[in-house]
Amino acid sequence: MISDNARAGMQQAPARSLFNALGFTPEEMKKPMVGIVSSFNEIVPGHMNIDKIVEAVKLGVAEAGGVPVVFPAIAVCDGIAMGHVGMKYSLVTRDLIADSTECMAIAHQFDALVMVPNCDKNVPGLLMAAARLNLPTVFVSGGPMLAGHVKGRKRSLSSMFEAVGSYAAGTMTEDDVCEYENKVCPTCGSCSGMYTANSMNCLTEALGMGLRGNGTIPAVYSERIRLAKHAGMAVMDMYNKGIKARDIITKDAIMNALTVDMALGCSTNSMLHLPAIAHEIGFDFDISFANPISERTPNLCHLAPAGPTYMEDLNEAGGVWAVMKELADIGLLNTDCMTVTGKTVGENIKNAVNRDPEVIRPVDNPYSKTGGLAVLKGNLAPDGSVVKRSAVVDEMMVHEGPARVFDCEEDAIAAIKGGKIVEGDVVVIRYEGPKGGPGMREMLNPTSAIAGMGLGSSVALITDGRFSGASRGASIGHVSPEAAVGGPIALVEEGDIIKIDIPNMKLELDVSDEVLAERKAKWQPREPKVITGYLKRYAALVTSGNRGAILALPGEQNA
């Protein structure tokens, strides 16, 4: 056992005295020590129930012959951090979570791990740690929130943000907004649509790192407690069989996850997190991989914000495994990949059933023949940009219009709500990238304001920042290179014509190469927005969005 390094032999007698202080019995000293990484806190609705999940995991581990030991991971609520300086501190926690989990696991010599995440950066951060540590590891999330109900219709947090935009447009009263405020988030859990948290929890299943239902069983269902107990048992089975994280997180598994991503219509943030997870196993994941996979993968689900269904509906329809079965039946998945069940993907999903062909469309009747995401390139984004095309209305798939340029999110929101943005405009928000932000803030407030103002079918938004999974419309993010390093987005001027062609994966600035060269010669880097603390260090180490905003030493950032 790895834990013998900390517990066995005369040399470790002092350490054993400390284990005695923890209440370990002599019998427990001889059993595998399983770290349970708990992201419980009382500020994130998706994490307020995780203490219950952790207790269930502990029972499962102990039942199967291990010794469960809990240690923490941080988690930020993107919804609460949205719209102010706090959003600069969201994405940056992903790497803190990975690094701190690595430190705890190695310092204390755990034999295996159960990760208990839920919300946005917590899931990929712990997946990065799992791949890095390569121990027997199982994930069990806190689960999704149930949808709210407003005026007889299911609603979620994205509806709340859009309600604020509608109020600014004068189409909704303060009482209406108050009703949304009190009803759209009715339970604990990750927000109820296919936003970033639920996207990553579903992709954890697709990777093979979570048991069936990890991404979809609602947080308030007792079924999730049973799932957590089984996760504790499963990690001990993995330990006994010698199955480790990198036996599961492979190149083929990551490409499976990308394929499932396209079918589900996941958040664009997956195009930051999958490259970062791939980096941990030495796989150079190019975001352009998304396009050929998207071209052959039908979009089978239109969960909020793309459509009127929610995570609870996907769960009842058969969940992620039912989606995977649809894809596997037409040869789109590698079914030989190992999973935390000790079985292959093919063995796991062979009996999965699609119980609702409107929530999970059959492959012969998809919402679209192409997947949910697309990577656009052109002279405005030479290294790529990302759009959730499953959430773009038909009339905005091809669009050109004048650039309305803003150097921060706040100025753009003021212009949108002030009625200064009109039909046909292309809003450009720059200097919000990984380095320039720093922290690559989500632009849910401006996209929701555009939708709420009734401009969602006529106005596009382009940014070197990123979007919430709750954003919809022609929202094109992760523009790389970013403005802070002199990318072409820094050279856009008010009124320049921008051409968007999502079917052909193009994002072009209608300005000649000669003019762009003249502008580049005059461009000067901006003074850093943050000069102290963690964000200063982060800005110095973070790479571009097209590389997953991973951290690298300065000499390695363009490798």
From TrEMBL:
Keyword terms: 2Fe-2S, Amino-acid biosynthesis, Branched-chain amino acid biosynthesis, Iron, Iron-sulfur, Lyase, Magnesium, Metal-binding
Q: Which residues form the Dihydroxy-acid/6-phosphogluconate dehydratase N-terminal domain?
A: 31-348
Any one GO MF term held by the record is:
2 iron, 2 sulfur cluster binding
Q: What reaction does this enzyme carry out catalytically?
A: (2R)-2,3-dihydroxy-3-methylbutanoate = 3-methyl-2-oxobutanoate + H2O; (2R,3R)-2,3-dihydroxy-3-methylpentanoate = (S)-3-methyl-2-oxopentanoate + H2O
Q: Which GO terms describe its cellular component?
A: cytosol
Enzyme Commission number? 4.2.1.9
| Cofactor, free-text remark | Binds 1 [2Fe-2S] cluster per subunit. This cluster acts as a Lewis acid cofactor.
Which BP terms in the Gene Ontology apply to this protein? isoleucine biosynthetic process; L-valine biosynthetic process
Report the PROSITE patterns cross-referenced here.
Answer: ILVD_EDD_1 (PS00886), ILVD_EDD_2 (PS00887)
Q: Which residues form the Dihydroxy-acid/6-phosphogluconate dehydratase C-terminal domain?
A: 358-549
For Mg(2+), which residues are the binding ones? D78, D120, K121, E442
Metabolic or biological pathway, per its Swiss-Prot or TrEMBL entry: Amino-acid biosynthesis; L-isoleucine biosynthesis; L-isoleucine from 2-oxobutanoate: step 3/4; Amino-acid biosynthesis; L-valine biosynthesis; L-valine from pyruvate: step 3/4
Q: What is this protein called?
A: Dihydroxy-acid dehydratase
Q: Which organism is it from?
A: Agathobacter rectalis
User: What's the source species' lineage?
Assistant: Bacteria, Bacillati, Bacillota, Clostridia, Lachnospirales
